[in-house]
Amino acid sequence: MNVLLVYPSYPDTFWSFKHALRFVRTKAAYPPLGLLTVAAMLPAEWAKKVVDLNVEPLSEADLAWADLTFISGMVIQKKSAEEVIGRCRAKGVKVVAGGPLFTHLYQEIQGVDHFVLGEAEEVLPVFLADLGRGEAKPLYRAERHPDLALTPAPLWELINFRNYRSMSVQFSRGCPFDCDFCDVVVLFGHKPRLKTPAQVLAELDSLHRLDWRGNVMLVDDNFIGHKGKTKELLREMVAWQKDHGYPFNFITEASVNMADDPELLSLMAEANFDQVFLGIESPAMDSLKECNKRQNQNRDLLAAVRTIQSYGLEVTGGFIVGFDADPPSIFDDQISFIEQAGIPTAMVGLLSVIPGTRLHERMKREGRLLGLPCGDSIMELGGFNFVPKIGRDKLIAGYKAILSRLYEPRAYYRRVLTFLSRYGLSGEGPKRPRSSLRRQDLAAAVRILWRLGFREGGRRFFWGFLTKVGLTRPAQLRLAMNLAATGYHLRKIARAFVQIEDEPSVA
């Protein structure tokens, strides 16, 4: 059996980092971890090929070779996924589909022969057994959340590492919180399920053995969903990093309550974590109550961000506008918070209503749904899929004002400087590997200097920023350059969105 595992392409959004990746000559931020893990669950005797459309095209030769195509993706990849399915159907290649996109929207997608929905560890073997007997059904759905001890290590040999900026490892699934707009608990449940430290270290060993060095993302829904078990893993990771000379720096997603635990932050710093994504969402407490973001309520969110930054962790933040409880000042409030917090990479989006969530059920009851989400409001205004209380026109105008003000060079570099002034103030921080600049690092720096220092309109702010860092924090120049490259990408996306002409609502 010849099996294609196809990962649809992402549109150009905040999350793609496409424009920043060009500086380092890589094609995508992360590999398709889910498909690589599914590949490890398929019969060993099957021939397998991964085609990630974010790094290479799906060729006619690929389709001619394949007996079966597995496809997985997120809601934002729907358009690309449908194109792949159409091509497979035209060539007579059967399609097996799974992952969040299809779990949510399988009834909306035509041309799939077999849907395998939910987590694959227990349901995929049932499908494979039926397939072997020639009795495969159109729909399979996982009824339980499996033990992650069943999860095999990904088949890394199916991809070319040079195409990616970071590798990915999963420690846990699920989140103990219950934000009403989030589909994590719908897909993976409230109770975090965990791999053993031995499993995680074995995956790190595999990456190290295959000569990967640099970024590794722990792709958990909430890395600290079970703090005690997370600390056990971190202690093992600290020892592993010391033994191997700190070959990796880690990135992850967590909740803001990590700021309450100095031991946790110290362990993350010692294990060489240098970035964490937090779902901050809003500085408006009424909005946080509305969406049941209880982990962010009744706390000083600014102080929490500053505490985390003081341990040498760059906080990247998720923010949302469009809650019913948002005050009229929400657009200025979001800008003020992000600037005071010194969050360079601030992902601000319009509220999106995802099928299966409690927010979706409420909007449906209230007759406020406008269709399906596109997965990312920055992609197109068509992804805006509910009737907001503030009014569509006001919300979109305010959102565009946020993007215009946050990402222009002067404002962005000022936030980076604010962050760098707090970076590592606790005296702790990532244990950086002692390595000299490589040729590709120098080449990337030259490309950044040329594009931002000579070609971009905000070049005088770039040179002022770089000069200030060089004079006051020379040890942070590499980090400053990386953040400058990220800012370039964010500006490109924000400017493109702000220029979109929206049709005024008739309401």
How would you describe this structure in keywords?
disordered C terminus, six-stranded parallel beta sheet, single chain, alpha/beta, 507 residues
| Amino- and carboxy-terminal Cα gap | 55 Å
Net shape? globular
Determine the number of helices (DSSP H or I, runs of at least 4 residues).
Answer: 19
How many E strands?
14
Strand content: 5-15%
Instruction: Characterize the main sheet.
Output: 6 strands, parallel
Percent helix range: 40-55%
Task: Name the quaternary structure.
Answer: single chain
Mean pLDDT: 94
Residue windows where pLDDT falls under 50 for at least 5 positions: 503-507
Class of secondary structure makeup: alpha/beta
Looking across the biggest beta sheet, what order are the strands in? 2-1-3-4-5-6
Whole-angstrom Rg = 23 Å
Question: Would you write up a description of this structure?
Answer:
There is one protein chain. Helix 13 links the parallel strand 13 and strand 14. It is globular and about 70 Å long. Strands 2-1-3-4-5-6 form a six-stranded parallel beta sheet, sandwiched between helices. A six-stranded parallel beta sheet has the order 7-10-11-12-13-14, covered by helices on one side. The protein is of the alpha/beta class and 507 residues long. It has 19 helices and 14 strands.
Summarize it.
By secondary structure, this protein is α/β, with parallel strands linked by helices. The chain has helices at residues 18-21, 33-41, 60-65, 78-90, 100-105, 120-132, 184-188, 197-209, 227-244, 262-270, 285-290, 301-310, 330-341, 358-365, 392-406, 409-422, 439-455, 459-472, 477-498, and strands at residues 2-7, 47-52, 68-72, 94-98, 114-117, 139-141, 166-169, 172-173, 193-194, 214-218, 248-254, 273-281, 314-321, 346-350.
